[in-house]
UniProtKB/TrEMBL annotation, chains A, B:
Residues 139-497 form the Glycosyl hydrolase family 13 catalytic domain. One of its GO terms (molecular function) is neopullulanase activity. Keywords: Glycosidase, Hydrolase. InterPro entries: GH, GH13_cat_dom, Glyco_hydro_13_lg-like_dom, Glyco_hydro_b, Ig-like_fold, Malt_amylase-like_C, O16G_dom_2. One of its GO terms (biological process) is carbohydrate metabolic process. CDD domains: AmyAc_CMD, E_set_CDase_PDE_N. SUPFAM superfamilies: (Trans)glycosidases, Glycosyl hydrolase domain. It comes from Saccharococcus caldoxylosilyticus. Belongs to the glycosyl hydrolase 13 family. Pfam families: Alpha-amylase, Alpha-amylase_N, Malt_amylase_C. This is Neopullulanase. Its EC number is 3.2.1.135.
Length: 588, 588
């Protein structure tokens, strides 16, 4: 066996508390190198006649990617303590892998050799809100969703959808516009809305905050926002706001004070200023988001700044009862800040959702002390490369998804935020080169996958557009201009996701993935329900054998409601190009 | 190249802030598989004409162990942000390793492929007290160090050293005894003392605390302790106490209250009680240290308990100015508790040393938010297997030490607590089967190694004894009964460690390790000083070639003070069995 490929380190995604009683243990080995793995484990104080009383239990192969197999087991240690190692076998070969290295036989004269999960302390268990698992989000860019109150339009507002947006154009979208279209969202079936920033800021995107305690006057006022949240809650819709705490806007009063008073400003330590006087060109001589002088980075290590921002976080929960905070540029702010942020917001509202914007591997923020989830861009990236761009085949896609799932604990995956696009990426229909069939497959995969999916406003009606500002066009409200075909598809998927817990909470198992025919078959299983999804992501009709023994089962086509009893050992299915089949498998 | 063996994941020991400006990046590859590694890196916002402006810099091989090579580089990112990947070459083969996998050429159209160190926030930098790097500790088990005040001896106290200790015997050691022997410690050269628990407790070891706010009356009173700390500080000696917060003693008032009042006790949530009434046999029906009914586990998640214990931690700093807390059974207490503990004690005394008792890999406690160091038992274990027991050869020993050093960031290693034994292990002379030569080599390695070494009282005079209670005999004060040979050896080593920063702060490089002759040669380098250590850990004299080009250097034998100019290309050295040579290498 290939020792160099074997990896385990306690905590993070390899050994973690799934809940207050249960540990999950994972092991990574070289792909197809190991035939079986057993966990050797016991409480460290279980001794008899000088021999440590090891137990032995088989691990299951929970998946594989390009290079590795992953092994999994769940253990409930009776005294919440565990020492453990791994017995790996392949043919006649057997090795025991421990913290101290490899052995031929498992030592039982000492527990010091072994890996250690010292104690399952409840307070350290990763714990995210339960409702997130049952939520379908809808992301709204308020300036472009609907203009409900022309009286507060900014100067120079263009007629709705009269032209393509530029980085600086205004179309008059506002909170009242959202309120007026809540029925549309209810009809669509979403039960969470995520609003990009709504606080006072000069730009149309409002990531350059002027005042964190005020609603932007072009979006409305606090009464309107209160009405929006209350109406949403009445309709069973949660509301998440965008916390832009990494940087403020150029017109944020403390920054203006520093611009004016320089070193004498009492706010000079609110920022990271390299030298006085401040300069904005060629690059700002203060830390900023990227090198954008209009977005000075806040010094979140400064206790005054910390208090200010934590007060902001508390205020919008306390006064308006919001349900979540999405954290902009979350990984550029210190961990210490986020730990205190979590304590503040969770103490006010224990089931508030904390969602970080992190585009990379985010394990260090998902250890239970900081975020509940991150925007899972590695998922997005894989899905787009496979479905939208056909850059990778079905096998590689399954490997990417398996790899992402094994990068985090299961309880983290269960609340991960899965998006196909956002205000920061081109529209998916555009990425799919206007191929509606591909968009439908993307929605199918997203809405049958675990976690908390999010639809970017307008993607459900086939809006198009490239990278910002193209992806921020005005929402199309005229039904005849909407792609009703995509809309009905999305509504149907959301309805299925609601009706069948296996869609949202089911564990995914890749049954088959072919690079030749580019088809992908997976099941989602939750409790006693199994959903079978078969996707043909190629331009040719395929005729495949279902890789499951279904004899004696009922198959319900969830798309057509047809159902039939499987009588043969094997079943064959024909799937048109860029299409799919969706079955619920039921016992007789 | 062997892709499955290549490992990197940002943060922890692979990518971390060494200080407020500097990042350290490490990579692991299969041993002898890769010829060169270059870091590809840049600020994520450095673009020109749509191309990300990557830099390329060579990494150095910082060590190897049984299976792996380790590569290292230091980077100072001008804007504190970094994206990076690795270019690995071997012969004509070249691969680029990124977060998203392997490529033939480094992509420059997007930074999303790459590993991400988002921002170097100062507050998240691991930061331990500087003085710890220059400290040699002395661990005292107070009941057995010296009886300075017979008037407060417990009932049934035995005459000093009149017999071997049992688990329950008392010999009358106390704080006054330590005070009376401070000159001995000054003469030995140590400048830190670590006292096992001194708070009110019935046992001789006092890990079963009755009252955390009182000195045990058999050890003395608060005035005496204050005098001890003040005298130590006058003599440049720091004082560290033992915080037994995982569990209390059976006679701790809140536990007694629960025993008496059962479910009606207001302290019932201070513990983890499975059912009422409490039972102590056959196993306690409440959580305990191991299964020891006399040591009920405290519920450190309970805010009342947390406040109580944090008050304890603060009290002994505030009132007595102690310099460190050693945390007993530290890994069985929740991370949340330790994060708050750090905030409390560091806010009172920023350079207090927080030392956790963790016998296993302790990375999750050493991320800057919890401990400064752990008792580095993997070091102890390796040193004992090589020097004391000859269970492993020189190569494997060098590999173990290299592996331990690469398991943690460098700034963690610089303050690690390195012990050869403690009140929880057999005495080193006993482990060495009474071979004084081996004990001397152990002290040589420990006291020439990085971090903060600790001598267990009496080991320096050749005391013997097996596992507890054997290792807790009364300190031998009659000079004629002390092993003066070991004592002089230790004093000399401590003096050298003080005189030569390279001993304590130098980076270790293993130059040669032979399993045949069992010799080990390493250098310690700090700034412009290099120390060369050559150890013969075998029963035969060896005659070796020094694996360094020393021509044109002065060699100072630090043990004999002889010095000579190296004139030949190669130097040969003869080293007697279980002996060593120690040179300072100087330029002409
Ligand atoms: Ca408007
Ligand atoms: Ca006494």
């Amino acid at each position: 066996m290939f020792k160099e490929a074997i990896y385990h380190r306690p905590k993070d995604n390899f050994a973690y508390a799934y809940d207050e009683k249960t540990l999950h243990i994972r092991l990574r080995t070289k792909k197809d190198d190991v035939e079986a793995v057993h966990l050797l484990y016991a409480d460290p104080y279980e001794w008899k006649d000088g021999v440590w009383q090891l137990n032995r239990a088989p691990m299951v192969k929970s998946g594989f990617d390009d290079l590795f197999d992953y092994w999994f087991i769940e253990v409930i240690p009776p005294y919440r303590r565990l020492r453990y190692g791994f017995e790996l076998t392949s043919g006649n070969e057997k090795i025991v892998y421990t913290e101290k290295g490899f052995y031929h036989e498992a030592p039982t004269d000492d527990t010091a050799y072994y890996f250690c999960f010292p104690f399952l302390n409840k307070i350290d268990v990763f714990h995210a809100p339960e409702w997130v698992k049952d939520t379908v989000w809808y992301q709204i860019f308020p300036e472009r969703f609907a203009n409900g109150n022309p009286a507060i339009d900014p100067e120079g507002t263009l007629p709705w959808a009269s032209e393509d947006p530029t980085p600086t154009s205004f179309f008059g979208g506002d909170l009242e516009g959202i309120i007026q279209h809540l029925d549309y969202l209810v009809d669509l079936g979403v039960n969470g809305i995520y609003l990009t920033p709504i606080f006072h800021a000069p730009s149309n995107h409002k990531y350059d905050t002027t005042n964190y305690f005020e609603i932007d006057p072009h979006f409305g006022d606090k009464q309107t926002f209160k009405k929006l949240v209350d109406l949403c809650h009445e309709k069973g819709i949660r509301v998440m706001l965008d916390a832009v705490f990494n940087h403020c806007g150029y017109y944020f009063a403390p920054f203006q004070d520093v611009l004016k008073n320089g070193e004498a400003s009492k706010y000079k330590d609110w920022f990271h200023i390299h030298e006085f006087p401040l300069q904005t060109t060629p690059r700002p001589n203060y830390d900023a988001f990227a090198f954008v002088a209009q977005m000075p980075k806040l010094n979140t290590e400064n206790p005054e700044v910390k208090k200010y921002l934590l007060d902001v976080a508390a205020y919008w929960i306390q006064e308006f009862d919001i349900d979540g905070w999405r954290l902009d540029v979350a990984n550029e702010i210190d961990h210490q800040f986020w730990r205190e942020f979590r304590q503040v917001v969770k103490s006010m509202k224990p089931d508030v959702y904390i969602l970080g914007e992190i585009w990379h591997d985010a394990m260090p923020w998902l250890r239970g002390d900081q975020f509940d989830a991150v925007m899972n861009y590695p998922f997005t990236n894989g899905a787009i490369r496979f479905f939208a761009k056909n850059e990778i085949g079905a096998k590689q896609f399954a490997n990417i998804i398996t790899n992402v799932l094994h990068s985090y604990p299961e309880n983290v995956n269960e609340v991960a935020f899965h998006l196909l696009g956002s205000h920061d990426t081109p529209r998916i229909l555009t990425v799919c080169d206007n191929d509606v069939r591909k968009v439908k497959l993307l929605f199918l995969f997203q809405l049958s996958f675990t976690g908390s999916p999010c639809i970017y406003y307008g993607d459900e009606i086939g809006m198009t557009g490239g990278q910002d500002p193209g992806c921020r066009k005005c929402m199309v409200w005229e039904e005849e201009k909407q792609n009703r075909d995509i809309l009905e598809h999305v509504k149907k998927l959301i309805a299925l996701r609601k009706a069948h817990p296996a869609f949202r909470r089911g564990k995914i198992t890749f049954m088959d993935a072919s690079d030749e025919s580019n088809h992908l078959i997976y099941t989602k299983t939750y409790l006693d329900e199994t959903i079978l999804v078969m996707i043909n992501n190629s331009s040719k009709e395929i005729d495949i054998t279902v890789p499951l023994s279904l004899k004696g089962k009922w198959l319900v086509n969830l798309w057509t409601n047809e159902q039939f009893a499987a009588e043969a050992e094997t079943l064959r299915a024909a799937i048109p190009p860029y299409s799919f089949l969706l079955y619920q498998i039921k016992n007789w």
